[in-house]
Specification:
This protein has about 450 residues and is α/β, with parallel strands linked by helices. It is about 35% helix and about 20% strand. It contains 14 helices and 19 strands. Strand 5 and strand 6 form a beta hairpin. The longest helix is centred in the C-terminal third of the chain and has 19 residues. It is globular. It starts with 5 loop residues before the first strand and ends with a helix.
Length: about 450
């Protein structure tokens, strides 16, 4: 069976247009509820969301679907994705749901499912949900007496705040540190500033006034310039930029220079290997991870595992190989000593812990390696598969010949939006840029 609804990160698309419609959301709730209703105990599902206007619509449809098959629903309101994963386990729920399109703008939305272990559902489970949505939902409706109930959980944010604070070393404090936090007008707009303040930091919050339409709009981890400017303006010691559902993060030093996911992985790997906390003799990245990270880890006698793009695939490789640190260049950082999915706030706290312990400025401590020149461009397309066109494949081969073994090219479809991502890296930045430009031009020629 081909997957029609689920991509690399749940169901995602333009709000109120297939597949992100109330009908699909209700059917997804019914199907997932059926699959995860096992035994005679009281079954429950927890639902969190970010701040998108369409979240109200999708949440109501999901509640209708879950309650119709006899599941009780606990609604958290705006809460980070990692908090939903954590509370799925904490509340012994059979299923967790996050309503979010992550780093996308407000027009998009999506539905992510977590199993009772707090892990994102496997491809097999997602295919089961799709199959049941197509056939057989009416047979699973609960009898009138067994219809589920729904209620709001008012202390969900407080629970996550306490959880996140416990990941920060007890002997350390953020006293004296001035920190800029950009919440992307998203799910962490309340909890992230509170966590930093309660740990002792002087907090300068931006992107903390959501209105349903401004999530990720010129702010957050995909547009960190606002955070970088604020760091320089306020002479802050550190900057943090989350995305809309706070499962990814990028940072900045006191000079406003960016610290991406690869640098964060290197910093945590170095610190944890010194203290014996690092497992698996390395970390897990993705095919997008910079070659500079791999070279640096080798100097520490550590290895880099490369998973497919998507934090779910990073987690799968971590579990198979016994790693406890993994992530993506984009800022998904998974530390499975603490949680089951990417957590931007917890990752930032681990970096801040290193800075506090070393008593060094971020510009000195957090730029761990020199990355290889890497260029990434996104090309939107409408229909078909431009990557199979001979003109594109020939341009890719020509680019590989130009790099002549000193770099690499990666061209792939995004799993979350109609975009083709073209990445190249190598020793000579001008050559890398020319290679990417040529491939992008060929895709644009085919796609229009």
């Amino acid at each position: 069976m081909n997957r029609k609804l689920f991509g690399t990160d749940g169901i995602r698309g333009r709000a109120n247009i297939f597949p992100v419609t109330p009908e699909i959301a209700m059917k997804a709730g019914m199907a997932a509820g059926r699959i995860f209703t096992r035994g005679d105990h009281l079954h429950r599902v927890v639902i969190g969301k970010d701040t998108r206007l369409s979240g109200y619509m999708i949440e109501s449809a999901l509640v209708a679907g879950f309650t119709s098959v006899g599941m009780d629903v606990f609604q958290f309101g705006p809460l980070p994705t990692p908090a939903v994963a954590m509370l799925t386990r904490s509340l012994r729920a059979d299923l967790g749901v996050m309503i979010s399109a992550s780093h996308n703008h407000f027009e998009d939305n999506g539905i992510k499912f977590f199993g009772p272990d707090g892990q994102k559902l496997s491809d097999e489970h997602e295919m089961q949900i799709e199959a049941l949505m197509e056939n057989g939902l009416e047979d699973g409706l609960a009898k009138p007496r067994k219809i589920g109930r729904a209620k709001r959980i008012d202390d969900a944010q407080a629970r996550y705040i306490e959880f996140a604070k416990r990941t920060f070393p007890k002997q350390l404090t953020l006293d004296g540190l001035r920190v800029v936090i950009d919440c992307a007008h998203g799910a962490a707009y309340k909890v992230a500033p509170a966590i930093l303040w309660e740990l002792g930091a002087e907090v300068i919050a931006i992107g903390d006034e959501p209105n349903g339409l401004n999530i990720n709009n010129e702010c957050g981890s995909t547009s960190p310039e606002a955070m970088q400017r604020k760091v320089r303006e306020r002479r802050a010691d550190f900057g943090i930029a989350l995305d809309g559902d706070a499962d990814r993060v990028v940072m900045a030093d006191e000079e406003g220079n960016l610290i991406d996911g690869d640098q964060i992985l290197a910093l945590i790997a170095r610190s944890w290997s010194k203290t014996g906390k690092l497992k698996g003799s390395g970390v897990v990245g993705t095919v997008m991870s910079n070659a500079g990270l791999e070279r640096y880890l080798k100097t520490l006698e550590l290895k880099l595992g490369r998973a497919s793009v998507g934090d779910r695939y990073v987690v799968e490789m971590m579990n198979r190989g016994g790693y406890n640190v993994g992530g993506e260049q984009s800022g998904h950082i998974i530390l499975n000593d603490f949680g089951t999915t990417g957590d931007g706030v917890v990752a930032a706290l681990q970096v801040l812990a290193v800075l506090a312990d070393d008593n060094k400025p971020a510009s000195e401590a957090a730029h761990v390696f020199d990355p290889l020149p890497q260029v990434l461009e996104n090309v939107r397309f409408r229909n078909g598969s431009p990557l199979t066109d001979a003109r594109v494949t020939e341009r890719i081969k020509a680019g590989e010949a130009r790099l002549n073994g000193t770099g690499r090219i990666l061209v792939r479809k995004s799993g979350t939006e109609p975009v083709i991502r073209v990445m190249a890296e190598g020793e000579d930045e001008s050559v890398v840029r020319e290679v990417v430009h040529d491939i992008v031009a060929s895709i644009e020629e085919v796609a229009t």
